[in-house]
Design brief:
InterPro entries: P-loop_NTPase, Small_GTP-bd, Small_GTPase. It comes from Obba rivulosa. This protein is α/β, with parallel strands linked by helices. It has one domain: P-loop containing nucleotide triphosphate hydrolases (Rossmann fold, 3-Layer(aba) Sandwich), CATH 3.40.50. It contains 5 helices and 7 strands; from the N terminus they run βαββαβαβαβαβ. The chain has a 7-stranded mixed sheet, sandwiched between helices. The C terminus is likely disordered.
């Protein structure tokens, strides 16, 4: 029988960078131009099937980006197995905010947490303020996964979640729930998601990557 894993994933980042839109694209392959800001956090699940037939179920916590909800964030990233820290490629300040989230995760989250830095809104490249070189250099220095996505077009969305699923420790017992099946810390290496081939699609409708 193929193995099944379950991991807790949290999305962090400044308000309006597109965290909720990324999750909506990943889970339902949909995009809504007029999504309201998340209040507190939203919870969704999605399953990814890997090349070896095993499945990874993500329990996804999409946190609010507004400053007034920042104090709630540790509740969601505590015991998280992985985090996607999102910035908007058209807003340089959002990358600085992403850096502060990453520092917080490195200080307070599980030392073995898998962190991916995600530059969203790649469809707005004409308005780019954050270069790929700058973001990738930072990700490499911090041992983070990195990639760019467009929640609007779907580009790169399935890739980033599939790459995380592949990187998560595969020694957890079947149906491990969140931190309960957490193995020990593993070494961190930078991974350029934009140079990886597209992986397996999610079990729901595949993203149009």
């Amino acid at each position: 029988m193929s193995k099944q894993y379950q991991f807790k994933l949290v999305l962090l980042g400044e308000s309006a960078v597109g965290k909720s839109s990324l999750v909506l694209r990943f889970v339902k392959d949909q995009f809504d131009d007029y999504r309201e800001s998340t209040i507190g956090a939203a919870f969704l699940t999605q399953t990814v099937t890997l090349d070896d037939g095993s499945t990874v179920k993500f329990e996804i916590w999409d946190t609010a980006g507004q400053e007034r909800y920042k104090s709630l964030a540790p509740m969601y990233y505590r015991n998280a197995n992985c985090a996607v820290v999102v910035y908007d490629i058209t807003q340089a300040a959002s990358l600085e905010k992403a850096r502060s989230w990453i520092r917080e995760l490195q200080r307070q989250a599980d030392p073995s947490i898998v962190i991916a830095l995600c530059g969203n809104k790649s469809d707005l490249a004409a308005r780019r303020q954050v270069s790929q070189e700058e973001a990738k250099k930072y990700a490499d220095e911090e041992g983070l996964m990195w990639g760019e996505t467009s929640a609007k077009t779907g580009e790169g969305v399935a890739d980033i979640f599939t790459a995380i699923a592949k990187k998560l420790p595969q020694t957890a017992p079947p149906s491990a729930r969140g931190a309960a099946g957490r193995p020990g810390a593993s070494g961190r290496t930078g991974v350029d998601l934009n140079k990886q081939p597209a992986g397996a699609n999610s079990q729901n409708e595949p993203c149009a990557c």
